[in-house]
Write a structure and sequence with these properties.
The complex is a heterodimer. Chain A is built from seven helices and 13 strands. By secondary structure, chain A is of the alpha/beta class. Chain A has a five-stranded mixed beta sheet. A four-stranded mixed beta sheet of chain A has the order 9-8-7-13, with no helix packed on it. Chain A has a three-stranded mixed beta sheet with strand order 4-2-12. By secondary structure, chain B is α/β, with parallel strands linked by helices. In chain B, 21% of the residues lie in helices and 25% in strands. The chains are: A alpha/beta, B alpha/beta. Strand 1 of chain A pairs parallel with strand 16 of chain B, so a sheet runs across the interface.
Chain lengths: 255, 305
């Protein structure tokens, strides 16, 4: 009985479909629904996320080092304590890797002032600190530049007068922007020598108007994130106490 | 062809458009009417948790657990619902740095996403990083203009997928943005980008004449519009240059629209282009109402946005 009933219904349906078959699109309604805190939370999904979140929080908040003071990229004119720390950390962490792979040493490091994304606060340093200072995924690359191109690099720094983080480069200029001293690892820049400059892939590709990395002699991508270099450095040192020094200065009164 | 005017209903803050006929007709029988609901997100960028109360721009907005509840209530209302994502699922919070996209895909599977296309940031851990996470995705990746044949992703995406809902066929195809200059070549390896307009024309033809789809949807990561670079392909340009596509769901440009954009296609028919910003702050909802011929005296589709 039930089966007959079913077949009968099917028959009606197919008949109906044959007769009035073609459906037309008659109306479209579009809207956007904001996801706000007035919407209820799906507790099953929330419970599923929780262990992942807790694990990240725990890892991000585990203490790696201690910062003696609060350091900001706005403290300092042509070099800053936080920038000096970052550039030195990149040198210290990346150079052993570069040396192992190529047999060569990094000659200097150049990062950009805009790439320091937060202050380094006094107190405990955690992985979260590294994510705050460097949220981007940029990796370290080493670029081989001829001495001549090093001149464009140096002149870019002089022209911009921003406290771009540098390491192993010492630059002293007069009030008229004349170079008093431009040395790499204590030696004057020679025009026919090749210099291995560590920077990040963003700047290498012309970011922040740094157009002097191309063309170059060769490029060595280290596949090593700037943030990971900072984390590795935090793990190695107990206490962070960088200072503003004489790596890039302008002598007041000297013309 | 008579072109109907765009009538803005200011008081309700909505607009009503009719085309090709005398407008909305009252229909007598409802038995043959069907509704398909399309829900969509784009550029969620690993934003699994809602923004905190202290966030300067998006305080207390977004969050997968809230989106899940909303989607479920919409599905309860209309089971004939598709849930789609227009790419850039990855990158933006430590969830991605720690788990490489695993949780993003697992949650999208739990929310029962039906399909997604691939955004440029989905290559951020390399094409191998994307491939590794595929085992966590119980939904189809659609990409018609990335040729993955020389990569590890080969056979793991489809140009399009046809869904059957309420006896209607819905064809969804995917389009991705040019990767050269945007993504490091070492990340996308030998992925070949193909001109999206040509591919879109192929797709709409196949979906209409071979697959007999009632609805054709393009899931695009091309970007909404490039004012400063008018030659660059975008969703608005794609909509104008193609035919038979009903809806383009976009991404990439993180465009917040007050309402979906209505564009005239190459045949002077209306196409809806939508995008819902980024970070899972909004959910797009487009309802398609179908009725039998008999019930409408004039052949016209009204669009209420």
């Amino acid at each position: 009985m039930r089966l007959t009933h079913f077949i009968f219904l099917l028959y009606i349906f197919s008949f109906y479909n044959c007769k009035e078959s073609k459906l037309e699109l008659i109306k479209i309604e579009g809207k956007q629904i904001p996801i706000t805190d007035t919407l209820p939370i799906d507790s099953e999904i929330e419970a599923y996320i929780k262990p992942f979140r807790d694990n990240i929080q725990k890892d991000l908040d585990s203490v790696l080092a201690y910062s003696v003071n609060t350091y900001s990229k706005s403290d300092g004119e042509l070099n800053t304590a936080i920038g000096n720390f970052m550039a030195d950390a990149v040198y210290n962490e990346a150079n052993p890797i570069f040396k192992k792979r190529t047999g060569k040493n990094i000659d200097m490091v150049l990062l950009n002032h805009g790439g320091i994304r937060s202050i380094l606060s006094k107190g405990h340093i955690t992985k979260r600190t590294a994510y705050q200072i460097m949220p981007f995924e940029n990796s370290i690359v080493v670029v081989a530049l001829k001495g001549k191109q090093m001149d464009s690099l140096v002149h870019h720094l002089i022209r911009k007068k921003r406290a771009h983080p540098i390491s192993k480069l010492k630059l002293t200029i007069t009030e008229n922007n004349d170079i008093v001293e431009a040395k790499i690892k204590g030696k004057s820049i020679e025009s026919d020598k090749i210099y291995y400059v560590a920077t990040n892939d963003y700047l290498y590709n012309g970011g922040d108007n740094m157009t002097f990395f191309k063309p170059n002699d060769s490029l060595y991508p280290l596949n090593y994130k700037i943030r990971n270099a900072l984390i590795d450095n935090f793990k190695k040192v107990d206490t962070i106490s960088p200072v503003i020094d004489d790596r890039f200065t302008q002598i007041k009164g000297a013309k | 062809m008579k072109r109907r005017d765009f009538i803005q209903q200011a008081s309700a803050g909505t607009a009503l458009v009719t085309l090709g006929g005398l407008g909305l007709q009252s229909f007598t029988t409802v038995t043959a009417s069907k509704k398909i609901t399309i829900l969509h997100t784009n550029d969620v960028h690993s934003h699994i948790d809602a923004f905190g109360p202290e966030d300067g721009r998006n305080a207390n907005k977004g969050g997968v657990a809230r989106r899940a509840g909303l989607i479920e209530s919409i599905r309860n209302e209309n089971p004939h619902t598709l849930l789609l994502d227009a790419g850039d699922i990855f990158q933006g919070t430590p969830y991605f740095n720690y788990y490489g996209g695993e949780l993003e895909f697992k949650l999208m599977s739990k929310l029962k996403y039906d399909a997604a296309t691939i955004g440029n940031h989905d290559f951020d851990n390399g094409i191998d990083g994307l491939y590794t996470q595929l085992e966590h995705a119980n939904f189809q990746f659609v990409s018609a203009n990335y040729d993955f044949s020389n990569t590890i992703m080969n056979t793991h995406t489809k140009p399009y997928k046809v869904f059957k809902k309420n006896n209607l066929k819905i064809g969804v195809f995917g389009l991705g943005i040019e990767l050269n200059g945007l993504v490091d070549p070492s990340m996308y390896k030998e992925t070949q980008y193909i001109d999206p307009i040509e591919i879109a024309q192929d797709m709409s033809r196949i979906l209409k004449t071979e697959e007999h789809c009632d609805l054709i949807i393009c899931l695009s990561h091309l970007g909404y519009n490039y004012k400063k670079d008018p030659n660059k392909i975008s969703d608005l340009k794609l909509a104008k240059a193609t035919k038979d596509i009903h809806l383009i769901i976009g991404g990439h440009t993180h465009t917040f629209l007050s309402k979906p954009t209505i564009v005239k296609n190459i045949e002077d028919k209306n196409v809806l282009v939508n995008q819902v910003g980024c970070y899972g702050i909004n959910l797009g909802k487009i309802d398609f109402h179908f009725d039998s011929n008999k019930n409408i005296s004039a052949n016209g589709t009204s669009i209420i946005v």
